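for the writeup, i need someone to sanity check this before i put it in the appendix. the sequnce is what the collaborator sent (i think, or maybe the updated version? ugh). structure was predicted straight from it, no edits. if anything looks off just tell me and ill rerun, i have time this weekend
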Amino acid sequence: MQQPEQQARTKIDRLLTDSGWVLQDRDSFDRNAALGVAVREFPLPAGFCDYLLFVDGKAAGVIEAKKAGVTLSGVAEQSAKYMTKLPEHLASWGELLIYDYESTGEETFFCNQRDPKARSRRLFAFHRPETLHEWLRQSDSLRARLRKMPPLETSGLRDCQVEAIQGLERSLAEDRPRALIQLATGAGKTFTACSFSWRLIKHAGAKRILFLVDRNNLGDQTLKEFQNFQPVGAANRFTDTYIVQHLHTHRIDPDAKVVITTIQRLYSMLRGKELDEEAEETSAFEQWTGDEGEPLPLTYNPEIPIETFDFIVTDECHRSIYGLWRQVLEYFDASIIGLTATPSKHTLGFFNQNMVAEYPYERSVADGVNVGYEIYRIRTHVTEQGGKVETDDAGFQVPVRDKRTRKLRYETLDEALEYTAKELDRSVVNPNQIRTVLQTYRDRVFTELFPDRSGQWLPKTLIFAKDDNHAEEIVHAVREVFGEGNDFAKKVTYRNGSEDPKALIKAFRVDPFPRVAVTVDMIATGTDIKPVEVLIFMRDVKSEGYYEQMKGRGVRTIPDADLQTVTPDAKTKTRFILIDAVGVSESKKNASQPLERKNSVSFDALLEQIAMGRRDEDALSSLAGRLAALDRKLNDEDRARVAENTGGKFPRELANDLLDAIDPDKQQTAIFEQHGTAPSPVQEQQVVDILIDNACRPFDKPQLRQLLKDIKQRTDIVIDEVTTDQLVHADFDHQRAEQTITSFKAFIEEHRDELTALQILYNQPLGQQGLTYAAIRELVNAMLEKPPHLAVANVWQAYKRLEASQVRGAPVDEQLTEVVSLVRYALGQTDTLEPIDAVVERRFNLWLGREKKAGREYNAEQEAWLRAIAAYLAANAEIAPQDFMDVPSLADRGGILRARQVLGNGLNEMLDELQEALVA
């Protein structure tokens, strides 16, 4: 029986042989027998070393062997003595040996003396001779090159991405083996990875980078990102310069610089097993949760050496470090870079607490990168309590579906069947429960959730089901409840039959249909679908990280035009709704909290409380969340007005200041800068108080508070969800109309001497009221700015309710000149209230009649020009020669040159005449 040390050497011999080394005893020494030769018990000045490694005939390193169980940190000192002096006659790669291994056969450490600060690191096996030979011919090591990276070109990068790349490169320069980057969903994790991958390959000479995903469709998405990535200052895109391979077979392209694959495929490759294609379509995190016993351990695979990759990027790494998958990461001699939106304590532990950048969800909302969310809870009796299928003495037949084939049969129940809430949709499906949830959503989506929508376009909705069978039931129920066809709702899972899941995902993202997608896992994480505005959880989730990732499908912002392409009656995505039908939001998990924590306190009251000295964290976080939401609804003019009152800061920046003040990391940094490493509790509190007071100081100004209140009231409408109601009478509300008109008349009277448009309309007779567009816009903005926020359309409607016989037509939406008709009617200057277009049309016909009487008749082209000028005057109240070049309706006719040719050289005088005749 072998002794423990001999057992260790047997294992070391096998590892060396598998890695491509030729083993020799000292008696049969031939240093040129192969590229890599390992000679046992070789004599050196310091004694016999266990193995001396020759690369291309020259001594390069040693291996010190120890029996299993020996801690190797102290052995490094023993093997170091062999590194200090070599025999003069020995062919070597330098005066000293370069590579130092210590191994028990179970555990191996390695140290490269060319590294700036040579440090031992753990290996799964030994490097191949070809690898050491390549390293020996390089002028310096990878870790040395990582210390000489050029400055980052920051153009085109968000601040959070700059922080992530610079933090990562500092960590790598310090030879820290693992680094974690937290970037909220939507902040550009993959783009950031493309950026630092380019730099690691180009400037650090990285041989190859592994990009791990846990589902195949996320690999497709990652490949597309690399294909579209244009490095700053480079003439070509990433994939035009370097090969990026998305693995679909078991062969790694030796020329590939980036290899994208699922962690499932790589695990099967390392084990030498074929992979079921379906295994790549399901989340690795869902497949193995640690409940299935010990995972099968990996052994060294000569086809995939440990040095295959220099860096491993693991996307959404909270799913990659559990049980089965951790082995894959630790197999390679590579620095591990984790990307995640939701780090857990397990993730932080795996990455040695080395978080090099932190950009959480709450911050991304404040920055406008993402939107906030609200939770809408639906409870049903069956969901909460389960159910019971009653039977009688004769028995009772119930339908039973085979989950594998979906074949339906009927069985007789001999006794009542009770099932719990946990069994629902697993072993028992209750179609009525599914319908109840969906009917509740249908009935409330346009009354409570999105009351500003037309009701014609259901917001894009993503439903999470428990499994494929549950998803199938939900899809059919959605179509039934909403009374729609197959294109309205689609199941998007890896078992989609003849329909391509990738095509369905794309359609859900960019096309109006389907409106509803039902999934189990395929688009639960990572997949980017910006138009989604509703998430419905009809399954519970145990993992906090997985739950956060599923929520992340709704957080992405989207340009208004892109949103309206798929949801025509939407305006702006300011938040998403999480509909919880199973209690997922209530189970024990540390989910990111909405910024809004004081929903019961009004925006106005919160502002006043901050001004009066309220400083608790919940209040500041809530105000930050509301300011961030408000910022997304503002136009540039409103933002500029806020900036005038804050020294140049927009609401989003005010929100960030509040979040910074309550951020523990920012507080600790400020405390250290002011008081060093040993501050007293009093000093710490003083610093925190100053940070918070500085963030709150802008709200001390009553002008800013009033401006924010005015803008907020114009943007939102209050919904009373408390007061009950019953039908007493059905008719238009005349009293409300009277209040609106009274308010309007009071407004124009109060501001008659302040606003230029009112000064002219009050003091100049009809026909001489020369208004400018700027003066009209000033009037409309003033009407909207303060309560009761008098919109032209609302005042017009009020007059129609009370004086219908005097009101003709309706104002043109967003045509500011309609306010002129309103004011003239309110002042009694006209007997009827009619759109400005009708007024201009009537006046234009009268003007043409006068011209004809004066002997000036116009041909068809001239009259067409004159009518185009009249239409422009109706919308703008004034016209100038420059408008003929800038306005499409005039420029497309030939502009100012053609107008002068058609209407003559007296065009300028004619424009003045028309302006006075038609709109003054």
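The two ends are 113 Å apart (CA to CA). DSSP finds 37 helices and 24 strands in the chain.
thx in advance!!
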